[in-house]
């Protein structure tokens, strides 16, 4: 059995890290590529060699086929692994790789053309008598000329690629031009192909996909199915395997259909056949992904197989590692996509330097990510930080394990969607498995409200006690009482600021407990255990575990996955100056600052324009999502500080106004 000696990974982030780990285990050397804003990514330091791609845009870096191929040849690699996204389903790139005498670790160029583009794949499936959802494809102009034959609502999506790029439901013909424009721009930028597909929107469906592998010679097998129905804006959030929501009879039909398609084209490598399943278990072919999927780890957890190793084995000419009868599935696996975005502000991307983070070490849990301490998130890519994957004997146990594990993941100072995903995990309908592809969207208001309520239910004394123990109490069991009291031997009265609220606290030792007085109420903490950033104790007959980190002049405390900011003048790095609010200061100018990072793609005003409150001023694209910047006031534009194409940072000045409004300021 032969394998490659050296491969180049034409990708970034967590999938590049994932490929490197398997390559290392197999003794294969790796060459990584990176853009300037990815220099701190884990994949750069893990690879045997890493090379900078000069440029600021995706076309100049991760989509730069010429530069990537030149690096491959210069470094003597034998094969290129494209990961997912970017060039993974680009038939032109696959052909160029093979024309250079290298191996493309994936489907053949012809297979990518046929099945990697949705329009071709659907036509092919239709010829094979596989049920499909009716639709049309082409450029925005082509589709607009066919509006009379469309039946609304429709779903607009990219013809090439995946990841939910450009996807949206359109309810009427009047809304279609705008949706097509957005889809065409996003897909051309991200996949290098601006073709669009518009299909009839089918409501109340589940998204079920089948993992397949082919050896390129007509032999193919399946590795069972995945449930991917929990989505937001057509981006998958939670994936599971197996799909306990559908019958074994339907699963057999899906397996047979998927393998039949795979064999018919003599498919090579890893692929996924995706289906929509309605309430009556009618199924429709959706697309084929001719690459490895983001959610492949849940299949690995339930089959015990390494799908990247399978890709490498097949690409090296070794055929399918196992026969269908040798592959079994057991237990249940769930994956959460951890993203840098704030659920309470319409999922705006969150910027920041990740100085520290905490990931639990658990049996049957893995964290696939590119994160390392010191890395800074970039607006040029999607918001995915990593994936949390658990395995248990059944679905209920897997859900409870994921809830427990996710509560102990902490990335201080960076807003993520993790608390939102926990609300879904804890939702009764999710736990009863009554879900569909609109589950998260239709419950968005409810889930956000539950999120706020859950955070407000965390007792303030728990946070204040944990903060005090973290900073002012020693856990040195061998030390004297004097040493254990630490800072407390000098003073035991403090003012602590909790999310902006100043609270007075004092504490004293009262063996075996520690007493705390908080706003005239006395609390007794017992069973205290301090393990670096994790503090556990009992309070009012309840057990609490609090994670704490210091960052940006604050101590970040996390309980049940919710994060809080605390600080005190008694900690040198957190000392703050008391401020008083002065009202009714008349000002004649005000500013609009960016509250996210990204690139300006539209400017809708110019100097001298009169604008109304909530009028759209700019459109900024951040992490592949578009955000409208609204006017906070009625006034006149004094100065526009950005233009189309400008890259903006968080808190950057965008627009200056002239106004006569009165505002409050802090001094």
Question: How would you sum up this structure, described in words?
Answer:
It is a single chain. With 667 residues, this protein is α+β, with helices and mostly antiparallel strands. The chain folds into 5 domains: 6-105, Rossmann fold (3-Layer(aba) Sandwich); 134-200, ATP-grasp fold, A domain (Dna Ligase, domain 1, 2-Layer Sandwich), CATH 3.30.1490; 206-219 and 236-456, ATP-grasp fold, B domain (D-amino Acid Aminotransferase, Chain A, domain 1); 460-574, 2-Layer Sandwich (Glycoprotein, Type 4 Pilin); 581-666, Beta Barrel (OB fold (Dihydrolipoamide Acetyltransferase, E2P)). It is built from 18 helices and 39 strands. The strands form 9 sheets. The chain has an 8-stranded antiparallel sheet with strand order 14-13-10-11-12-15-21-19, with helices on both faces. An 8-stranded antiparallel β-barrel has the order 22-23-24-25-26-27-28-29. A hairpin with a 5-residue loop joins strand 13 (268-277) and strand 14 (283-289). The chain is globular, with a radius of gyration of 27 Å. It starts with 5 loop residues before the first strand and ends with a strand.
């Amino acid at each position: 059995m032969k394998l490659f000696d050296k491969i180049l990974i034409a990708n970034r982030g967590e999938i590049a890290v994932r490929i490197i780990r398997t390559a290392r285990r197999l003794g294969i050397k790796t060459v990584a590529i990176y853009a300037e804003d990815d220099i701190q990514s884990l994949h750069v330091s893990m690879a045997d060699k890493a090379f900078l791609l000069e440029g600021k845009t995706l076309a100049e870096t991760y989509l730069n086929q010429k530069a990537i191929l030149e690096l491959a040849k210069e470094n003597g690699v034998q094969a290129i692994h494209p990961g997912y996204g970017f060039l993974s389903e680009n038939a032109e790139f696959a052909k160029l790789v093979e024309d250079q005498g290298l191996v493309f670790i994936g489907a053949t160029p012809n297979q990518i053309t046929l099945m990697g583009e949705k329009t071709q794949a659907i036509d092919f499936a239709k010829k094979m008598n596989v049920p499909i959802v009716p639709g049309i494809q082409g450029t925005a102009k082509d589709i607009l000329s066919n509006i009379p034959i469309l039946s609304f609502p429709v779903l607009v999506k990219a013809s090439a690629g995946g990841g939910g790029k450009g996807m949206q439901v359109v309810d009427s013909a009047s809304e279609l031009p705008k949706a097509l424009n957005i889809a065409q721009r996003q897909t051309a930028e991200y996949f290098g192909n601006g073709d669009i597909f518009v299909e009839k929107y089918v409501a109340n469906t589940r998204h079920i996909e089948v993992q397949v592998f082919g050896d390129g010679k007509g032999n193919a097998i399946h590795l069972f199915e995945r449930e991917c129905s929990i989505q937001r804006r057509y981006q998958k959030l939670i994936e599971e395997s197996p799909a306990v929501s559908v019958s074994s009879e339907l699963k057999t039909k899906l397996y047979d259909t998927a393998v039949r398609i795979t064999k018919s084209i003599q498919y090579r490598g890893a692929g996924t056949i995706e289906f929509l399943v309605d309430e009556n278990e009618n199924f429709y072919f959706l697309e084929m992904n001719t690459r490895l999927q983001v959610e492949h780890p849940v299949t690995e957890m339930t089959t015990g197989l390494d799908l990247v190793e399978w890709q490498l084995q097949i690409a090296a000419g070794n055929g399918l590692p196992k026969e269908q009868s040798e592959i079994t599935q057991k237990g249940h696996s769930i994956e959460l996509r951890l993203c840098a975005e704030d659920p309470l502000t319409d999922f705006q991307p969150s910027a920041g330097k990740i100085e520290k983070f905490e990931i639990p070490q658990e049996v049957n849990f893995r964290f696939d990510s590119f994160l390392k301490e010191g890395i800074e998130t970039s607006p040029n890519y999607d918001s995915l930080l990593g994936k949390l994957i658990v395995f248990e004997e059944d679905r209920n146990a897997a859900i409870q394990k994921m809830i427990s594990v996710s509560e102990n993941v902490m990335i201080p100072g960076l807003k993520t969607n993790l608390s939102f995903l926990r609300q879904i995990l804890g939702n009764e309908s999710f736990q009863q498995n009554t879900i569909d592809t609109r589950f998260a969207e239709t419950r968005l208001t409810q889930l956000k409200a539950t999120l706020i309520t859950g955070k407000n239910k965390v007792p303030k004394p728990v946070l204040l006690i944990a903060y005090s123990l973290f900073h002012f109490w020693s856990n040195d069991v061998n030390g004297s009482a004097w040493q254990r009291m630490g800072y407390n031997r000098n003073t035991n009265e403090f003012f602590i600021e909790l999310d902006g609220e100043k609270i007075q606290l004092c504490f004293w030792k009262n063996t075996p407990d520690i007493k705390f007085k908080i706003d005239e109420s006395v609390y007794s903490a017992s069973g205290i255990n301090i393990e670096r950033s994790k503090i556990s104790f009992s309070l009012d007959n309840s057990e609490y575990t609090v994670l704490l980190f210091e960052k940006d002049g604050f101590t970040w405390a996390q309980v049940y996955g919710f994060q809080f900011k605390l600080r005190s003048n008694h900690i040198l790095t957190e000392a703050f100056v008391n401020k008083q609010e002065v009202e009714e200061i008349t000002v004649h100018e005000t500013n609009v600052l960016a509250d996210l990072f990204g690139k300006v793609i539209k400017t809708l005003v110019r100097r001298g324009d009169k604008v109304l409150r909530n009028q759209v001023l700019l459109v900024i694209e951040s992490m592949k999502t578009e955000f409208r910047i609204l006017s906070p006031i009625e006034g006149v534009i004094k100065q526009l500080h950005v233009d189309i194409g400008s890259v903006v940072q968080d808190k950057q000045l965008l627009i200056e106004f002239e106004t006569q409004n009165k505002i409050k300021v802090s001094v």
